[in-house]
Amino acid sequence: ALGSILTSLTAPIHLISSSHLVHSLVDCNKQSTMAKTKEEREQRRLEAKARAEKRKAAKDAAKQQKELHGDNDTATAADAKMNINDLRKNLPISKEHNSSLAMVTLPIDALSRVMRYLPAREWGAVSLTCTGLNLTLGGCRVSHISSRLMRREDEEGKQSTCGSMCLVGGLQLCVDRKEAQEILDRSFVGGGETNRLVSKKMKLSRKKNPNGDADADEYPAYARFVEEATLGYSAMQCSRDALFPTHVQGRFASCSPEHTLLRIGGGGNTASGPGGSGVASWGVGKRGQLGFGKREDEPEPRLLLSKIGWGVRIVQVAAGGGLVRVAHSLLLTSTGRVLSFGTAQYGALGHGYDAGKQLSDCLRPRYIDALKNEKCICVAAGELHSGVVTMDGDVYTFGEGFCGQLGLGDRRPQLLPKQVTLGGLEDECVNNMSMGCRHTLVTTDDGDVYSWGLGRFGVLGRSYTDFTYNNDVGMAVPEGEEGHVAGVAARPPPMQAAAMDNIINAANDDGTNDIMAALDALNLTLDDPSDQCYPKVIDSLQGVRCVGVSAGHRHSMVLDEFGGLYTFGSGASGALGHGDLQGQEYPIKVQEFDNMRVRIHQFSAGVDMSLAVDTQGTVYAWGKASEGRLGLGMGRLQTALPREVDVGDAKFKAVDVECGYVHSLIVGLDGSVYQCGGVGVDGKDDGQQDLDIEENQRGLPRLLSGFNIWHRIAEPKEKVVKEQWKKYGKYELKGRSKMLQEGVRSIG
Length: 748
Description:
- It is built from 14 helices and 32 strands.
- By secondary structure, it is α+β, with helices and mostly antiparallel strands.
- A hairpin with a 5-residue loop joins strand 1 and strand 2.
- Helix 1 runs antiparallel to helix 2, helix 7 (138-149) packs across helix 8 and helix 7 (138-149) packs parallel to helix 10.
- The termini are far apart.
């Protein structure tokens, strides 16, 4: 039949007409029908009869086996093990002939070992290869997730690492497969009712088998969340290896003194990826830092629209701002693009001048066009400045630079991103960045830490030479002039914690006045000799391979590859965790963790307070604790040593923490989020006094009910309000057609 069609089609074009082609197809159809001869039909009947006899013989053999061993006896242990390991026993045979696939011919235990090495994204692709395979991989899912959470021992007793690729020894978030199964079950209900999306196939499976694996389709989304939290693997479209810095700040959440950003929502039926692709924001919004297009406060988390999470996948957030009542936000997409919004007064958004050389606040997320040719893997936001790290390890900074926090060799503001090349940083491959109030920290692939900016309080962790700057150029005075000798370490003045606290409490609406007031009260000027305008490595950490940094308001934190935590800077309220209120000019290891044999995985430095998560998911807090900002209750004002934070759930395990000024966030392994303290909105006081919380629960972590980071949810629709006719006195705004009609009528 096909030959006849090809023969007719190979004839000269001018001989083929539409009627000729139709007749050819009809003739071919008749030939194919007649081709089913009597012999062929008889052959098919014989084959069907043979298959029926084979099934009958198998059924009779099973019946005889049952009679031989009795009704209550089961098969032998070997047969039972073979049946359990044979994936094809539970795999429905469909027209795709799933049983013939090479993958399903493997025993389940062997298949589990193979699937364990697949990233979550590839796992999801494999589960879609054939009908019914996804529902039969329950045991493989437990093995897959436990390999990310649990250390294993080989035959020689050696432990294999898992989780963080940077930490030697990895994580230990579960101890056996039973606990891994419990963690997996908790992940689907974490955060309460979130209205997560469930596929039609899973709904039907739940009706047929209520006790079955009805959440199989959702597992790849949860596995991607776990891999981001433990490995830093984010499957970015811009990176060759798809790996983030493992200990980057803002992985899931970021806090400024006035607002909060949280990755949440997203997914759905689009190609934007799993849940956690969207962003929710709340807090003070007077500067447009919430991204809703209005200058209004939000007391509870609210999702950003404009296709963020549904078409544009967000992989990192950064909330910038300080105690001078200015704030801005940065978002990093999976394609390596950066969006910014909020206060544009100091150039921290990176958009440059608008028309007429204006710096207008951005009320909605907007791409930074100056970075469109760069693929970024990390973003950071300080009080008045911002920065990004590219896939090639380059650093770009922009914003206010009057304290040298941009690292560009001067103290000028920079309205567009500019690469940092001084201090040897151009030859280094940077992988992580964190920005504090007026200083910046970065880590390199070699494990070195560079710092620059305002050197007061010892936040740079290194010695520095006093410099005298020209007001325009920012050049150092030559060696020996005016008594300055190159290489002599300049000791900062004694810590003035009380003076700084007064500045914090007396912040005004005008950001510029606040900055000047802060400098005057601390006996500082814009010509402060502690300003370090170019990067320099922290010498005291030479020989220690560092994998993470966090820059707070006036103290800093560094993490080494063995989970050891180092702090330096101001010791006000015990923020360094050394048991006293003394400041430190150089990095000092927190001995309390060594005494408890605790290794740190994630950490965050805020305004005179600190949080950390160890490799077993326990949260520790120290520093300023008033108003419940650390989750240690209302009775404690400060603590100079790390204290364990109890969220009220014995099975809760944390994977990330973030600090602000009067609040902090804790992200759980199940995707749930707890908030400690709170930012006062709409003129209300900071803390939890105005919340509907029982008296005995105040000052403790509060679950953000209805929110789970990795759950996929439906895209909310933005309401479009149509403009109505407006009357101004006896006059009415009219359309052009109506005005023309009235004009013609008046002429007539």
